[in-house]
Amino acid sequence: MKKLFSVAIALFFLTSVSNAQFDIGASLSIPSGAIVDVFDLGMGFGATVQYGISKDGNLSYGGTGSFYYYTSDLLTMTVIPVQSFAKYYLADNIYGIGKFGYSVIGGTVEGGGVFSGNSGISYGLGAGIELGMFEVGASYDFLATDFSSIGVHALFKL
Q1: Domain coordinates of the chain in residue numbers?
Q2: Which of 73, 116, 152, 154 has the fewest CB neighbours in a 10 Å radius?
Q3: CA 20 to CA 48: how far, in whole Å?
Q4: What mean pLDDT do residues 120-135 have?
């Protein structure tokens, strides 16, 4: 029974991957919330996998992982959100997106100290446009208890 279940799971993932859309890209993020006085601008990169789930192509879901890097005179902070998302296509290439996941926050202090931020639940809303092999979008993300950001991204479809 365990072997049959394992084979069924493997077949599900193999067929899912064959219908998946993979993207890689870069992003800029302007922090808001409690740390806005400390950091100005964050840069990051990430990867996304997306699956279509409706017959007419209007709805898709997927997962994304990112890495944001913020720096100031005294601190360097890293934010790693791992989120699932749902996209709803308003037109052929324009979409709205909702995201939900978990963010890990940490960093270093000038002089060699290390800190762990308020890692926790993350969620966000955004919109974007697909232009052939590229995608450009913007979102507002709540990345932890006291940290949120306004971000823009550009992705390349593989």
Answers
A1: 21-157
A2: 73
A3: 10
A4: 92
